[in-house]
Amino acid sequence: MTDIYYSSTRGGERGVTASQAILKGLAKDGGLFMPDVIPALDISPAEMAGMTYQEVAYEVMKLYLTDFTEDELKSCISSAYDGKFDTEEIAPLAKADGAYYLELFHGSTIAFKDMALSILPHLMTVSARKNKADHTIVILTATSGDTGKAAMAGFADVEGTRIIVFYPKNGVSRVQELQMLTQKGENTSVVGISGNFDDAQNGVKKIFGDREFAKELEERGYQLSSANSINIGRLVPQIVYYVYAYVKLLEHGEISGDEAINVTVPTGNFGNILAAYLAKRMGLPIKTLLCASNDNKVLYDFFRTGIYDRRREFILTSSPSMDILISSNLERLIYLSAGCDAAKTEELMASLTGEGSYGVSDEMKKNMSDFRGGFATQEENAAEIRRLYDRTGYLIDTHTGVASCVYRKYAAETGDQTKTVIASTASPYKFLKSVMEAVSGTDGSETDEFSLVPEMERASGVPAPAAIRDLQNAAIRHNRQCSPEEMKETVSDILK
Ligand SMILES: *Cc1c(COP(=O)(O)O)cnc(C)c1O
């Protein structure tokens, strides 16, 4: 196997091994690490028929993490994808009304972030050992609601690590907030900020870019890293389930030979859909990547016009994990589309920070033509959740609702009948109130979320997952808050 090295999308770091890139999270120059070549699958989907999730994971991840030994990687995989998931399939496919819903929410925090964050701590520990890193690793994470809990669940009480999560105080669902505030583990900290997700993410990136602070922390025995999807250790495990889904479709006779499929992904930070794109570039037969947005449709506008413009109102929606105006991972697609031109990427990102927008050339836009944007308003989303439920009895969450709606609109508009996998990113139980409101068509703003559990059990025929049952009696363990400007001081204080 060829060794793969990683470079910053902004050119400041080159020749970085996978384990070093995982340890660092973000490159020193503020760029994101990208592999110098995208490896091709060395075994076809047909040859993978019959493989377990863990086996497929190894076939995909070994191509990227080339400085991990077979034993190291296999042990990370088996420690991650185990009984923490409530099904042996790990990521089952459900067929409803002609589309395939890839359920990525069977992990312990019932959202798709578990797919990568149950393995990241293991990859991180191995990486630290490999690089003889003797400092305590401090995972700094901004969350739009789901990453925070999944990252803490993964890193809780992992030796040699601390984890600090920043979330928008008024921008997450009640279940998401409670999941974070009740998190156990001596090494976990949660901070609500008076701002939105973009503020949290910018604050974290700023701390990463602060060399003086890094030095000060180093003297105190700490090294920063990230659990956000800017970390390549998040991105690589996310490629796996697209390959796995394709293999299962083949195995079940839903597709034949090397039939191309479409993929629809409810998108926020552009990590999940970028993983699907990498799967395509590795040789998986994917035709169109439908990038689904909610009312914060900055990506929809971008794919239509080639102009990325974040200067607009930030809208709080019923799909909070997609309420994002600065999609970090788009930088990786920009870099690839510019022919890995780091100077160009840096220039566009500077324009985004400075002016709040940038435009790409026609050539770059052409290089992104595998993508197509779509969006669903709150009302369209609720209507789709209800429509699908009424027609099939299958209940989806508000993020998957956005994707499902965008897919139906696309199919109607274009007549494209390509079989489509829709990434189903959260359990409907995580967004109880919005989902039950959608199904019943009523406004339940006064109701207590948990009182809706039996109702959802009846409606869906799926018993409430342990994550929800346990939450109702769990004690609140965190109560820190700060403003976006105080994030650095807060980190310093927590690490006292
Ligand atoms: C994080 C998240 C998304 C968005 O995924 P990105 O990788 O940030 O694009 C969508 N749905 C849910 C439920 C999420 O938690």
Quickly describe the structure.
This protein has helices spanning 18-24, 53-61, 70-80, 113-117, 120-130, 147-155, 174-181, 197-209, 211-219, 232-251, 271-281, 298-305, 330-337, 342-354, 362-367, 378-392, 398-414, 432-440, 453-460, 466-471, 487-494; strands at 6-8, 33-35, 93-96, 99-103, 136-142, 161-168, 188-193, 222-226, 261-266, 286-293, 307-309, 357-359, 371-375, 420-424, 480-482.
What does the model show?
- There is one protein chain.
- This protein is α/β, with parallel strands linked by helices and 496 residues long.
- The protein has a domain at 93-111 and 233-463: Rossmann fold (3-Layer(aba) Sandwich).
- 43% of the residues lie in helices and 15% in strands.
- The protein is built from 21 helices and 15 strands.
- The strands form four sheets. A six-stranded mixed β-sheet has the order 3-4-14-9-10-13, with helices on both faces. Strands 8-5-6-7-15 form a five-stranded parallel β-sheet, with helices on both faces.
- Strand 9 (261-266), helix 11 and strand 10 form a beta-alpha-beta unit.
- It is globular, with a radius of gyration of 21 Å.
- It starts with 5 loop residues before the first strand and ends with a helix.
- The mean pLDDT is 96.
- Pyridoxal-5'-phosphate (PLP) is lined by residues 111-113, 146, 229, 266-272, 321-322, 399, 425-426.
What is the makeup of the main sheet? Answer: 6 strands, mixed
Coarse structural class: alpha/beta
CATH architecture heading of the domain at 93-111 and 233-463: 3-Layer(aba) Sandwich
- Shape, please? globular
- At the first level of CATH, the class of the domain at 93-111 and 233-463 is Alpha Beta
Strand order of the largest sheet: 3-4-14-9-10-13
